[in-house]
């Protein structure tokens, strides 16, 4: 009987592992007709594979119950509860939605409706219960991310290795906004920011060939982020670099590793700049912000400071002098100073937001501030029931353009561009409209509980650090982008994998 139980459990674990391979390797590389309708193709691939593999997992679990096999008792964790509440919020908001026909699948091209939300939660519970902590999936995911990122970097350097841009001119929208096997640069920013944690963790904590590949992957991520024509990707690259620096401030040897990685950011900028100055490439960049980024002298100062600090620490390490970082005093000072700077920046932003006029708001942040303001105006006019529970996942377009009038008023006044928005370009504001305060609270709880558990273990396991960095990268992007099948499923899988890697660390420690 024990052997049969073990066989059933191994079968379910193999199915979950196979799905993770499809998710982390198949989905990013899958292209049906190059970049034509790539969003639809990626969604159908994700939905169909998830439904098929999910059905097999459910059948295997049911078969285990029918046979009366004993299950390993697993205490419900806080993340499980918040995940379940998130699903409840999606279902309930669908039930009261004024546009149920739009909410079931979601807006065409994005498809983040009720069906997708259910699949995402299902991924979490399946992976959290049956992922066995195998390291091979990290190799598969990391190598795939490296391939996708390398192709994206080549595309921005005007090297079309897949022939996806044949017939397009450099200035047209598709040529500047699409890249690699992913498509839209917002999708691409989310994807590379989530998967960057794998290469950064390998470079930071890896050994031998793992560390070499990690350094290469980190360089590709940083170089591709700054050339991706996405300010979001640039912010994620800088944010993850600063986070890695902060994590390393408790041990000198770790700080040395972190500085080696951090120096790759200015070096990647110098590389792009060299390509431009020597006319080795027709760099495909549309945004003025990104162009100015390459030619600011600040990066010389950053690189010089990193190099000097690295040399000083390396000399002290070789001479085996006292490590002042071990006391934690420097770490606490940096954390407090950083918190003060962030709070000051937020306060200053709020003050400026109250002073500047609507015209300046409409131009700021590539028009996002205007969209955010209209979103809040629309949400503020909803009834109490909708404010708390939302109008259903995927209902943003309906609420903004068909239910509310503020968006059309702003468009007529020239304060908001005439694009079609199916989301607020801010995941939290979109969620506030679609699943209300209840859904936002549950979603926040998912990330807070997982990151809190991971924070205690990131110094003990590269997998824990990879998940921690991947989730943080996604959260940075979520401030300026939206849920989509090119990054959000990976996040829910990572949330589930966090359970496996945390249990593995506990077992090794015991």
TrEMBL record:
Keywords: Ligase, Membrane, Transmembrane, Transmembrane helix. It is a multi-pass membrane protein. Its main location: membrane. It comes from the Bacteria. One of its GO terms (cellular component) is membrane. Residues 300-444 form the O-antigen ligase-related domain. It is found in: Membrane. Pfam families: Wzy_C. GO terms for molecular function: ligase activity. The chain crosses the membrane at residues 12-31, 43-66, 78-97, 109-127, 136-154, 187-205, 233-249, 261-287, 293-313, 333-356, 428-452, 464-482, 488-507. InterPro entries: O-antigen_ligase-rel_domated (IPR007016), WaaL-like (IPR051533). PANTHER family: LIPOPOLYSACCHARIDE BIOSYNTHESIS PROTEIN PA4999-RELATED, TEICHURONIC ACID BIOSYNTHESIS PROTEIN TUAE. This is O-antigen ligase family protein.
């Amino acid at each position: 009987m024990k052997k049969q139980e073990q066989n059933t459990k191994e079968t379910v674990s193999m199915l979950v592992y196979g799905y993770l391979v499809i998710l982390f390797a198949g989905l990013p590389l899958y292209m049906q007709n190059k970049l034509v309708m790539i969003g639809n193709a990626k969604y159908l691939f994700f939905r169909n594979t998830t439904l098929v593999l999910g059905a097999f997992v459910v059948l295997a679990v049911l078969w285990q119950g029918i046979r009366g096999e004993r299950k390993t008792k697993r205490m419900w964790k806080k993340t499980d509860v918040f995940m379940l509440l998130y699903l409840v919020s999606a279902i309930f908001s669908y039930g009261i939605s004024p546009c149920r026909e739009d909410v079931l699948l979601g807006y065409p091209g994005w498809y983040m409706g009720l069906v997708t939300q259910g699949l995402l939660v299902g991924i979490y519970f399946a992976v959290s219960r049956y992922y066995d902590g195998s390291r091979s999936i990290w190799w598969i995911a990391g190598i795939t991310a490296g391939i996708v990122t390398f192709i994206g970097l080549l595309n921005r350097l005007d090297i079309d290795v897949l022939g996806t841009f044949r017939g397009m001119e450099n200035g047209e929208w598709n040529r500047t906004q699409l890249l690699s096997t992913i498509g839209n640069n917002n999708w691409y920013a989310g994807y590379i920011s989530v998967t960057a944690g794998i290469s950064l963790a390998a470079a930071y904590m890896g050994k031998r060939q793992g560390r070499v590949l990690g350094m290469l992957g980190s360089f590709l991520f940083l170089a591709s982020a700054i050339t991706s024509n996405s300010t979001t990707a640039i912010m994620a690259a800088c944010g993850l670099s600063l986070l890695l620096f902060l994590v390393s401030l408790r041990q000198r040897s770790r700080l040395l590793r972190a500085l080696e990685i951090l120096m790759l950011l200015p070096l990647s900028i110098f590389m792009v700049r060299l390509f431009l100055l020597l006319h080795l490439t027709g760099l495909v960049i549309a945004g003025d912000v990104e162009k100015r980024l390459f030619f600011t002298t600040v990066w010389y100062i950053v690189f010089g400071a990193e190099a000097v600090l690295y040399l000083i620490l390396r000399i002290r390490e070789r001479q085996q002098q006292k490590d002042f970082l071990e006391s934690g005093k420097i770490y606490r000072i940096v954390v407090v100073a950083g918190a003060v700077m962030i709070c000051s920046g937020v306060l200053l932003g709020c003050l400026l937001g109250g002073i500047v006029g609507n015209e300046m708001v409409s131009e700021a942040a590539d028009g996002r501030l205007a969209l955010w303001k209209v979103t809040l105006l629309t949400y503020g006019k909803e009834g109490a029931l909708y404010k708390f529970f939302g109008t259903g996942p995927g209902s943003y377009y309906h609420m903004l353009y068909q239910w509310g009038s503020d968006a059309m008023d702003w468009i007529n006044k020239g304060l908001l561009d005439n694009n079609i928005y199916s989301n607020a370009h801010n995941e939290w504001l979109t969620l506030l409209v679609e699943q209300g305060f209840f859904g936002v609270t549950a979603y926040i709880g998912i990330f807070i509980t997982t990151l809190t558990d991971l924070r205690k273990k990131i110094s003990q396991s590269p997998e824990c650090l990879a998940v921690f960095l991947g989730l943080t990268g996604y959260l940075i992007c979520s401030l300026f982008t939206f849920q989509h099948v090119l990054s959000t499923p990976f996040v829910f899988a990572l949330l589930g994998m966090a359970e496996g890697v945390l249990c593995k660390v506990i077992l090794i420690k015991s």
